[in-house]
C-alpha cells in the first residue's frame, strides 16, 4: 500500500510517498481501507516534531480518516468487514490502509459522504465542546471566533449560528471573512487590518459573551479586553505559534472567565460529556450540517495540502483521497 512517510522531521516537503506491506489486524485491532483522510493542523506539528508528544521516525503521517473495514482481529465485536467507519489515530491516516484499535472507530453518521465524514470529527467535536461545554454559549450570545475561516473556525461559526449565537468572525482577510458570512456569521473583522478590540466593542456594545481562540498570539489579549463582564474566553490552540501571556489585572477588572479546552483530555476526564456532544452533533448533521471542505487532494499531494494549511491559505477543511 502507498503511505506518506515522515523519515526525518521537517516541513511538509520532507514527507515521502512509500510502498509498504499491507497491515494486518492483531487482537482487538481493525484494518480499514482509507477512503478519505482529513488534514489537521497538528499533523504538520507532529511531522516537524513540534507537537506536545514526539513520535519516533519513521512513521506515516495523518490522524483522521473515514473508510471501509477490511479485516478484524480476534476479540473485535463492534465492527465487521464492509462496515463504513470514521476514526482517529495519532499517526497513520495518510495511507491506503490503516490498522487501529477497535475503540478508535465510530460509525459514519447517516447522510455523510466519506470526505465529509473524515472532515467533521476533530473540528466539529472541538468546536461543539469549546462553544457549549466550556464556553457555555447561550442563544443570543455574541460569539467571537478567531481564525474563523480555518477548520476549527468554520466549524465554530457553523455550530454557533445553528445554536442561535450571533457570530462575529475574525480572520486575516476580507475574502476569508466573506466565507464565514456565508456560513452564518452576522459580522466580520479582518484582524490584520482592523483593530480587533475596538471592532468587537463597537459591534456588540457591551462586549463579547464568548470568545473561541484557536490562534493565540496578540489577538488573545485584544479579544479578552473586548469581552463583556463575566465573558468566557476559551483557549483552543496556538496556530499563530505564539502562546499568549495575559495580564491578570484585565481578568480581574472584567470578571472574565478564561478556560482551556483540549478534546483529548475532555475525552479522558468526561467521556459522558463527549458522548452527549457526539449525539448533539449527530442531530445537527441530520438537520443538514456539513463541514466546509475547500479542497480534495490525491494522497501524493499531502505535502502541498499541509503547506496550504500552514500558509493560512486553506479555507475550512482539506481532505486527501487515497482512492484516486
Ligand atoms: N484544543 C483542541 O482540542 C484542538 C482540536 C483541534 C485543533 N486544535 C488547534 O486549533 C488550532 C487551529 O486548528 P485548525 O484545524 O482550525 O487549523 P487551520 O484550519 O489551519 O486554521 C487555523 C487558522 O489560524 C489562523 N492563523 C493565524 N495565524 C496563523 C499562523 N501563523 N499560521 C497558521 N494559521 C494562522 C489562520 O486564519 P487567518 O489567516 O484567517 O488568521 C487559520 O485559518 C491549531 O493550533 C490546532 O492545533 C485544538
TrEMBL record:
Q: Which residues form the Enoyl reductase (ER) domain?
A: 10-320
Which one of the record's GO molecular function terms can you name? oxidoreductase activity
Which residues fall in a coiled-coil region?
none
- Official protein name in the record: Quinone oxidoreductase
